[in-house]
Design brief:
Blueprint lengths: L32 E8 L5 E2 L4 E6 L6 E6 L8 E7 L5 E7 L4 E9 L2 E6 L5 E8 L5 E9 L6 E10 L2
Antiparallel strand pairs: 1-2, 1-3, 1-11, 3-4, 4-5, 5-6, 6-7, 7-8, 8-9, 9-10, 10-11
């Protein structure tokens, strides 16, 4: 048993341990920190509240942990785990306090942050644009019942506080 093993847990298979940390993960550093959030639904005023999102690296810097506190009183709190995906992309595993679990594909390239998932009946996509100074991210969420006809769901603004 190595110092990293715990009694009663199996050691990882050799093919489960990556040879090294993908350099593409460094692109996620721009997200690290605490962000205030503001929502805007179609036709409505911005909803302000105690919304906060934080991003921090899990030890080893292979996975980025995102914690979301709700902006709306009845809105969901969530945690996501972001890690490497295929061909320089990322994969985001989403879990919220309603019991919802989703898997999103993700890219973060320059000033453009994208999330998407293809799920029959409820497709989603997200386009975030980072400000030149990296302190504001403006996001538009869209949804679709079929992956062809898309409609605006809501806007979200992240403002970095630390």
């Amino acid at each position: 048993m190595t110092s990293n093993d715990h009694p009663g847990t199996a050691s990882p298979a050799p093919d489960e341990i990556p040879a090294g940390r993908p350099a593409s993960l460094d692109a996620l550093d721009v997200l690290v920190g605490a962000w205030d959030t503001q929502l805007r639904f179609p036709g409505g005023p911005p909803v302000t509240g105690q919304g906060r999102t934080t991003f921090e690296w899990l030890e080893g810097r292979f996975f980025l942990i995102q914690r979301v506190s709700a902006v709306l009183p009845d809105g969901p709190g969530a945690i996501t785990i972001i890690g490497p995906g295929p061909a320089g992309t990322f994969r985001q595993n989403f879990f919220d306090n309603r019991g919802v679990q989703r898997v999103y594909e993700m890219s973060l390239d320059g000033g453009s942050w994208r999330l998407w998932r293809e799920s029959p009946g409820f497709w989603q996509r997200f386009l975030g644009t980072l400000s030149a100074d990296g302190r504001v991210i403006t996001v538009a969420w869209e949804k679709s019942p079929d992956g062809h006809s898309w409609q605006h769901d809501f806007k979200l603004t992240y403002t970095k506080v630390r």
